[in-house]
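Bit of a strange request maybe. I'm writing a small parser for C-alpha cell strings and I need a real example to test against, not something I typed by hand. Could someone generate the C-alpha cells for this chain?
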Amino acid sequence: MLGRLFATLSGDPVVRLRLEHVTDDACRQFHIDSVELRLLCTYAGVGTEWIAADGTSRRLSVGDVAVLKGSKFPDTAPRILHRSPPVEHLPRWRRSRLLLCIDQPGVF
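Reply from user aminoacidic:
Good idea to test on real output. This should exercise your parser:
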C-alpha cells in the first residue's frame, strides 16, 4: 500500500524499497536527503526525528508515515531536516529499529 501511495505521489510507477534493521546511530546528523522524495516508516523501535518549523525537535511514532521532500525536489519550498534517532546510549535490547524507506528508482 505504501509503495503504491509513493508511486502516485512521485509520479513514477517504479519504486525502490529498503526494509532495514538498524542497530546503531546511522544517519545521526540532521540532514536533507539528496533525492526528490523519500517515504519513511518505522515499524519497530524508536522513530525518525525531525525539526518542526518552530525549531523544536519532534519524533515520529511507530507506524507514522513521513514523505519528505529532498534537495532535488523541483520547487523551493522549505525542506524538513531529519535524522535517525541516537540509539547507542540505549540498552542493547532497545537499539533495534525496523525502518521502511521508499525512494524513486536510481537512488543509492
